[in-house]
Design brief:
Elements lengths: L6 E4 L4 H12 L5 E2 L11 H11 L3 E4 L7 H6 L1 H21 L4 E7 L26 H21 L3 E6 L1 E3 L12 H15 L3 E5 L5 E6 H14 L6 E3 L4 E3 H12 L4 E5 L8 E2 L4 H6 L7 H22 L1
Parallel strand pairs: 1-2, 1-3, 3-4, 4-5, 5-9, 6-8, 7-11, 8-12
Antiparallel strand pairs: 8-10
Helix pairs in contact: 1-7, 2-4, 4-5, 6-8, 6-10, 8-10
The chain binds guanosine-5'-diphosphate.
Length: 315
């Protein structure tokens, strides 16, 4: 990408998209197009086609998606498959028709089989059955990857696919049952500290292992890949460090300074037992995630606290 290249950032209001917007701006990329959900509903084919036809971006980051934690995936399977299939189908096909030079599609580590050998290598995609709690989301993401591959093969496009591990950061959703685990725990431990509650309930057994990457590192990796990676094969994007949910809850507890107990609620689902990516391909190419889990959680908590202050001042 040149600094004045026309770049369409789809999903700029989300966790990854907002980090990418900041990163691109800081990097001197000055010709970025964004559209709010109200201005352009990416599920509507005709609207997406006419947007691409009019704007003709050169580069596209496809970070728009319906995402959520384990409970959201279980409760809204139809929305997770429909919204994601519709958004990515419309954007990828319109990008081809509008002659986009390069597109980066964000896929997800959920695409790997439930019993995948760890750490998960790119070649393992479609080698076994999926984890049922997020199968609809994973199926949509697999279709996105296969669609990029098909367009590259038939139309000689340059559509690349980054397979993202669990991401977290300042633009997370901290409030609801639908959150991912890090923002959910930040919200829970913070509220328990403020209210003086004796314990915090963490879902599942505490044994599942997850890998996390800070959203700013995802943004760095995405720009790096857009500028250097031209292979149709998917590439993992992660930190490479696995932690158990128990370890994670102790880190969040420590950062927040909560003094009570952590209780595991085994009536809640664990999901996939281990989800840690093999990031050797990305690292060998020259990109390494730089923000440690402890540091990233601290930064995320600081943002959460400033948002809380604003909310409280309005109450
Ligand atoms: P997943 O990686 O697709 O399973 O998505 P999540 O980020 O929602 O959950 C990761 C793991 O954290 C699962 O084993 C959850 O059971 C566990 N977990 C523990 N407490 C919570 C919580 O309060 N919210 C969420 N979303 N997950 C939690």
């Amino acid at each position: 990408m040149e600094k004045d290249s026309k770049i369409y950032l789809a999903g700029d209001n989300g966790l990854i998209g907002s980090a990418l917007a900041g990163f691109l701006k800081k990097g001197g990329y000055g010709n970025i197009i964004t559209k709010s959900r109200r201005q352009l509903d990416l599920r509507r084919q005709a609207d997406v086609e006419s947007f691409f036809d009019k704007e003709r971006p050169e580069y596209v980051f496809l970070a728009a998606a319906r995402v959520g934690g384990i409970a959201a995936n279980i409760n809204y399977p139809a929305e997770f498959i429909y919204d994601n299939l519709a958004i990515q189908t419309n954007v990828i096909n319109s990008a081809y028709k509008a002659g986009v030079k390069k597109l980066l599609f964000f896929a997800s580590a959920c695409m790997y089989p439930k019993n995948c050998p760890q750490p998960m290598q790119e070649s393992r995609i479609l080698s076994g059955e999926l984890e049922p709690t997020n199968e609809p989301y994973a199926m949509a993401k697999i279709c996105g990857l296969k669609m990029c591959e098909a367009y590259n093969r038939q139309y000689k496009t340059n559509f690349i696919c980054a397979v993202l591990t669990n991401a977290y950061g300042c633009k997370d959703d901290f409030q609801t049952e639908d959150s991912h685990v890090i923002p959910a725990l930040i919200g829970k431990f913070h509220r328990a500290k403020i209210s003086g509650a004796d314990s915090v309930s963490v879902w599942g057994s505490g044994k599942p292992e997850r890998e996390f990457i800070f959203a700013d590192d995802v943004a760095g990796a995405a720009v790096f890949l857009m500028n250097t990676y031209n292979d149709p094969a998917p590439i993992n994007v992660g930190s490479g460090r696995g932690v158990s949910i128990k370890e994670l809850s102790l880190i969040v507890k420590e950062v927040i300074g909560y003094k009570g107990e952590v209780v595991f609620d085994s009536s809640k689902p664990d999901g996939i037992p281990r989800k840690v990516l093999d990031v050797s391909k990305l690292n060998t190419l020259g990109f390494k995630a730089g923000v440690s889990l402890e540091e990233g959680i601290k930064k995320t908590y600081e943002t959460f606290q400033s948002q809380e202050e604003i909310l409280n001042s309005r109450r």
